[in-house]
């Protein structure tokens, strides 16, 4: 392990990582404490905040290549959390470009693993999020997908009114949120036909169904359904507008290629 080196870009706990990674490599399926320490170093609170995470991706890829189920799932989960932080202030854009082929391979591994059909729910959701991160969507990778008590706020793309969107037990509607009277001038949402979804929304819905996440799959049809502005009556796709306002900008010369890796 003495020959293992992290290329140094920006900030990162470079010196602390190798001994912890060495412990993980010695026992990738059994040393849970080493994995916890590695998570703490590379994806603090579930999101990378340093360049060291990207430098470690080739080594997580190698663990995932081992084929041992527990080790594969742990490596892919951590890799997804690291990639989800690609738009954070890590100072490692050059490094991200250098490891792009590794991220693309991790994406393929995650996709295959999601299709295995033997995943525990928590693991399935972690890999679902990891796959979204590798598709370049930090926003959806980190979204809670709360379809019991869920609210989103977006601007009407036509008149710019701030519109509240409810998707959950309180209802499925668009409204204007009044300080004194709550959600007023409500308009019912129009649910999307799953067959009309495309791109990442279609992948999310199809994969949620295949994984047995029925509530998530149904909620996505509302999230990517149409809302009516309570002021100008313009209609728009909720998820598209939310992503347009909240997804980190993908610069032409940025580290994330169009469509992800």
Brief summary:
The protein is α+β, with helices and mostly antiparallel strands and 261 residues long.
Annotation keywords:
261 residues; alpha+beta; 2 domains; four-stranded antiparallel sheet; 11 helices; 13% strand; elongated
Residue ranges: pLDDT <50 for 5 or more in a row?
A: none
Output the structural class. Answer: alpha+beta
Main sheet properties: 4 strands, antiparallel
Instruction: Provide a count of the helices.
Output: 11
* Residue-averaged pLDDT: 90
Q: Estimate the global geometry from the Cα principal axes.
A: elongated
Spell out the helices and strands N to C: HHHHHHHHEEEEHHEEH
Helix content: 40-55%
Main sheet strand line-up: 1-2-3-4
Strand percentage: 5-15%
Radius of gyration of CA atoms, rounded to a whole number = 20 Å
Separation of the first and last Cα atoms: 29 Å
Counted up, domains total 2
Q: Compute the number of strand runs.
A: 6
Describe this structure as you would to a colleague.
By secondary structure, this protein is an alpha+beta fold. The protein has 2 domains: 17-137; 149-246, no CATH class. 46% of the residues lie in helices and 13% in strands. The protein has 11 helices and 6 strands. The protein has helices at residues 17-26, 32-42, 52-64, 69-84, 93-98, 100-114, 121-134, 138-142, 199-210, 214-223, 238-246, and strands at 149-155, 162-168, 171-178, 182-188, 226-228, 235-237. It has a 4-stranded antiparallel sheet with strand order 1-2-3-4, with helices on one face. It has a two-stranded antiparallel sheet with strand order 5-6. Helix 6 (100-114) runs antiparallel to helix 7 (121-134) and helix 9 (199-210) packs antiparallel against helix 10 (214-223). The chain is elongated and about 60 Å long.
């Amino acid at each position: 392990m003495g020959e293992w080196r992290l290329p140094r870009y920006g900030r990162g706990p470079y010196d602390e990582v190798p001994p912890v990674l060495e412990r993980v490599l010695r026992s990738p399926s059994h040393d849970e404490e080493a994995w916890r320490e590695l998570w703490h170093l590379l994806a603090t609170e579930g999101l990378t905040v340093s360049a060291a995470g990207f430098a470690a991706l080739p080594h997580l890829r190698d663990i995932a290549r081992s084929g041992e189920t527990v080790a594969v799932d742990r490596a892919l989960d951590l890799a997804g959390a690291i990639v989800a932080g690609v738009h954070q202030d890590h100072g490692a854009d050059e490094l991200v470009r250098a490891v792009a082929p590794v991220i693309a391979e991790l994406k393929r591994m995650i996709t295959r693993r999601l299709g295995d059909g033997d995943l525990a729910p928590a693991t399935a959701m972690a890999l679902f999020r990891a796959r979204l991160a590798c598709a370049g969507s930090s926003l959806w990778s980190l979204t809670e997908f709360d379809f019991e008590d869920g609210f989103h706020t977006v601007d009407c793309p036509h008149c710019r009114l701030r519109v509240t969107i409810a998707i959950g037990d309180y209802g499925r509607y668009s409204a204007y949120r009044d300080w004194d009277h709550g959600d007023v001038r409500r308009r019912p949402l129009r649910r999307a036909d799953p067959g009309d979804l495309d791109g990442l929304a279609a992948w999310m819905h199809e994969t949620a169904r295949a994984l047995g996440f029925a509530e998530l799959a149904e909620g996505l049809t509302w999230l990517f359904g149409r809302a009516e502005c309570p002021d100008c009556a313009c209609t728009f796709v909720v998820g598209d507008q939310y992503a347009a306002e909240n997804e980190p900008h993908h610069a032409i010369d940025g580290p994330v290629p169009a469509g992800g890796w």
